[in-house]
Specification:
mainly alpha
């Protein structure tokens, strides 16, 4: 890589790590940059996954106060996330990108509906005898399994998807949802990265390392920003980023 490509890649990791911690969808920043510096789509995707997981885990550490008391739900959802991530990482190596890319905008759109109208949906369900729970339900576990598959395969806006699901299935504060999201997203990327390395998939370690350096700094910055955002502002940021992700993917 040339000097400007190194700087650009680190900055992409910084921005992606920050956005991932605050909302999600940082892949939509870092992945195109890796393509721009000359990596093939599959290698760029794999290297990006390897580089981004440290930032999400650092972001989760930054949210450690909000994670307090969520141990049981984190463990249960982590099992679903890990299983899904393994399946998604393996699918990346055997399926064409078009197979998943076609449904990504639909999934993000659904997530945004859940984020914006989550309280109304909960009220509608409650009126019919169904309530969001403080515990992990079968529906949430299955949804997290499928989100893990998507995250292991590509991962763009998986945080938006998770926040939408938590808003409907999980009764808690949105900042605690965000803390859990950071932990699970980091875990999904970590597991996918391990799968890629174990099976001998091609990783551009220079690119992955540069993304990692940026994403770690972004995780620290994102936690400081995200934890200070009021709930309605955080929802607004999620919607703006989610819409931008949809438009970018459709274009």
């Amino acid at each position: 890589m040339s000097a400007w490509q190194v700087v650009l890649t680190v900055l992409a990791g910084l921005w992606a790590g920050t956005i991932n911690t605050v909302v999600g969808s940082g892949t939509l920043v870092s992945f195109p940059v890796l393509l721009a510096v000359g990596l093939s789509p599959v290698i760029a995707n794999i290297s990006n996954t390897v580089g981004l997981f440290p930032g999400s885990l650092v972001g989760a550490y930054g949210y450690r106060r909000e994670l307090a008391g969520q141990g049981r739900r984190a463990i249960l959802l982590s099992v679903a996330a890990v299983l899904g991530a393994v399946a998604g990482a393996l699918l990346l190596l055997v399926l064409p990108h078009a197979a998943f890319d076609a449904i990504v905008p639909v999934l993000i759109g659904l997530a945004l509906v859940l984020v914006v109208f989550g309280k109304r949906i909960n009220a509608w369900l409650a009126a019919r005898g169904r309530h969001a729970s403080e515990h992990v339900t079968v529906g949430l576990w299955i949804a997290m399994l499928l989100t893990g598959v998507y995250g292991g395969y590509f991962g763009a806006a998986q945080g938006v998807l998770q926040m939408g699901l938590f808003g409907v299935f999980l009764k808690d504060d949105i900042q605690r949802h965000n803390a859990l999201k950071n932990l699970l997203a980091g875990l999904i990327n970590l597991v996918a990265a391990v799968v890629f390395v174990v099976i001998g998939a091609r990783v551009n370690w220079v690119a992955a390392g540069l993304i990692a350096v940026g994403s770690i700094a972004g995780g620290v910055l994102g936690a400081r920003i995200g934890r200070r955002l009021p709930p309605n502002v955080l929802r607004g940021v999620i919607v703006v980023v989610g819409v931008a992700a949809m438009v970018k993917l459709l274009v």
